[in-house]
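Changelog entry: the NAD(P)H-dependent oxidoreductase record was regenerated in this release. Current contents:
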Amino acid sequence: MKIVGIAGSNVGSKTRTAMDVTLQKARDKYPDAEITLLDLAEYDMVFSDGRNYWEYEGDTKFVTETIMAADAIIIGTPTFQASIPATLKNIFDLLPVNGFRDKVVSLLVTAGTARHYLMVEMQLKPILAYMKAHIVPTYVFLEDKDFHRKEIINDDILFRIERLVEDTVQLTNAYAKIREEKDAEYDF
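Regenerated structure tokens:
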């Protein structure tokens, strides 16, 4: 199983901290999984200009092809101006409309206030549904108060991150089994 984590901003540290914790829990619990972190702050991405994702070069091609090869994606994103960062939106623009078909996508969101959960419900989930993702119904929402010196200090958040990882893997396995059974119906 290929799991790709996306730290969806090119600034700040909270989302990266949360993604590091999340992917470490995934590595500990599922050592056979191939787990990759794409921290968008570490890549020189170009803005989408309408080409197919495989026609880009350099970091943009690497990032989009890594996402397209994934079985499961864990998106970590901060909330900026009650919305998603432009760097994450650009990823969605670079991929095809059905770019998340047969992929399980789970979400981890950082924000300054609890009111920003609406960004997930009103913006992020509809984009993922439009792109044909199987969305893990629950997500982890972290506020500033859950961090201290670049560490997560809320035990409930750590438990929910562990559960998010489990739900992501279980849902990915379930959908893989469904696809196998469906493919077995065809006799060619």
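The beta strands are 2-7, 34-39, 72-78, 104-111, 134-135, 140-143, 147-148, 151-152.
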